Here is the input.
Amino acid sequence: MRRSRGLAAALALSLAGSGAAVGLGLVAPAAAITPPVAFTADPLPTWQPNGVVWALAEAGGTVFAGGTFSTVRPPAGGGGAEQPAVNFAALDAATGAPTSCSLSFTIGSGTATVRALNLSPDKKTLYAGGYFGAVNGTPVSSIAAIDVATCTVKQSFRPAFAATVRAIAVTDDTVYAGGDFLTVAGQPRQRFAAVDAADGALRPFRADADDPGRAVEVTPDGRNVLLGGDFFTVNGTNTHALAVVDAASGALTKAYPGFIETNSVVKDIATDATGFYTANEGTGGGVFDGRIALNLSDFGQRWRDTCLGATQAVLPYRSVLYSASHAHDCSSVGEYPDGQRHHLLAQPTSAVGKLGWAPDTNDGIGEGIGPRVMAVGSKAGTDYLWVGGEFTTVNGAAQQSLTRFSSTGDTGAPTTPVASAAAFRPGEVQVRWRTSLDLDDSALTYRIYRNGAATPIGTVTADSLFFKRPQASWTDTTAQAGQSYTYRVTATDAAGNVSAPSGTVSVTVPVTADAYPSQVRADGAQLYWRYDESSLPYVADSSDGNQAGVHQNAPALRQSPGAVGGASTAIGFNGTNAHVYGDRRQSIGSTYSIETWFRTATTQGGKLIGFGNQQINGSSQYDKHVYMTDDGRLVYGVYTGATRTITTTASYNDDKWHHVVATQGPGGMTLYVTARRRAR
Here is the structure.
C-alpha cells in the first residue's frame, strides 16, 4: 500500500452522534503584499458620537462627520466632557478632537440626519445632504452649502429637494445629488439631479430613476457621472443599480442590464485615475455583496470580488482599495469560508486578493452593519484613514461610530508564534510554528533561538493573513544524535515590533531513524499530522508541505498509548464539536490517498476525516471523506457532481487501533483498513 499524496495522522477518537472528528477547511492562499498598505491597523484615540456616522469629508486637516447623533464624547480614557453635536461634527484629523466648528442639522418633525458630505474642488465649500430643514436655524431643504473658513451656512445656495439626499458629487460649477426625491424646486427630478454650485439653481440635467439613488461620482475628466442605487431603469432604459450618464444632459452613456443581481444594490462609488469601484449590498439568497472594479476607458469590468457580506464603502488610495463591509464568506474568490465577519479589508486596485491589513470592528447598533463610510484626512505630512459607521468596538476595544488609522507609528507587535519541534533521525531537528498574525504586516521575520541563547541560530521570512496562517519551519542540521535541545521562536514586523517568544519546546535527537515517520515522509505525504502537540491550538505538520492545522473546541492532547508506539501520542475528540481543521485550502486532484489511525467504541458513528466548506462550523458541502456508521462500519464518500460511496462489511468500533486509507485513481475508489482492501 502506497502512503503518498495524502494525510497520515494518529487519532484517538471518542465519537458520539454525527459530530465531525477531523476536517480540513477550504481556505485558499491569497496575495500577501505588505508594501502597498498605507495605514497601520492601530486605531488612534478619536472622539465618538452617540449614534451612527453616515458621511465623512476632509478639508485642510479637518474631518467632517455627518450622521444621526446628538453628542460627541472623548475616547475611552481621554480627557474632556461630552459636547452637543447635532448630526454633525468637525474634528482635527491629527488629534481626533472636535474643532470650534459647530453646526446643528435639525428638522421640525421626524428625525433629522446627514447622509452625504462632499467638498468643492478648491475645498472652500462643504456640501451636506440628508433629511433636514435647517442648519443652525437657517432654513434649508435637505441640502446645504457651508463656508469652510467661517463654518457658516451659505444662504445664497438654496435648492429645494423634496426628500432625502443620500449622495453628493461636486465639480467647479455643479452639484450632483442622488436620493429619494422626485422633485427639485418643484420641477420633476426623479432620484438624481444637478444644481448650480453657487446659487443652487436647477440644471437641465435629467437622469430619472425608478428607485432611490445612493451613489454619485463624477469621472475625473468631468464628462460623465456615475450613478449607483436601487434603481432598475434610468431615463426609461433597463440598467439595474449602476449607470453612466452624460454630465451635462444626463443622457445614458453606458447601461448595465443584468450586470448586477436584481436583489443587490450599489451603495457607494469611488474613482481613481484608472477606474471606478462599486460597493454592493444584497438581500436574500443569490446576492452580490462584494466589489467591482471598472475601467474608465470603456466603463467595462476589470474584476469582480464576490465575497458575501454587504459592502458599504470603497476607497481607492495609492493603488490599494480599502473597503468597509461585514464580509463573512470569501470562499468564492478562494479565500476564507463562511463564518466570522470581517469589517475592514484591503486589496490591490488591480485584483481581488486581500492584502495584509485587517483591523476590525463589530456590527454595532442600528442595522448591525458595522462601518459605513471611509475618508482620508491629512495634516502635518501624515495621512489618516477615518472610518465611520455604527460599530461600538474597534479591534475589540470600546469605540463608537468613528475611528482612524495613521500612515505612521505602527506599534502593534505580531502575535506570539506557537512552536513545536520533532526529530525523526540523527543530526536533524525540525522546528515548526504556526505563523503569527499582524493586522498591518503580512510578511514577518521569524528568529529561532536554541538552548536559551541570545543570538538566533536561524531566521525565516514567511507571509500570513488573518485567514491564512500557514506553518513555517526551519531545520537544525547541527543537532547531535542523542542530545536534547530547546527552541523558542519570535516574530518581527516591518516596523521592528517583536512578539513575545514562543513557549519553549524540547526535543531529543534519536540515535537511529524512527521508522514510521521516516517512511511516511519518504513516501511523499503532503500533510502529516502526528498529534503530539502539548498545547493548543496549533497542529504541526511533519511533512515538507508545511500545512498546519488548528484544534477547535479543545480536543484532549497527548493521549497515550498512541497508534504506532514510540514517542508519538494521539488526540481525543468529544464526538460533538471538537475537531481539527486545515489552515488553508487543499487542492487535490483525481488521484490521491487520505489516511488516518482511529480507535473508538462508539455506537453513534461520526466523521473521521475529509474535506468540507467550513472550518469552525459544520460544513454544508463534503467531499473525499470517511465516516463511521452507528454499527461501526466505515463509509468512504466522494462528490463529483453526484455522490458515490463505498462501505465496509466489517465493523471497527471495537476500541482497537485501526489504520484506514481511502484512495481514488484511474482504478476507481478503494478503502483499505489495516493494510487490507475492505471496500471497492
Observations:
- Confidence is low (pLDDT under 50) at residues 1-33.
- The first strand starts at residue 7 and ends at 9.
- Residues 113 and 448 are 56 Å apart (CA to CA).
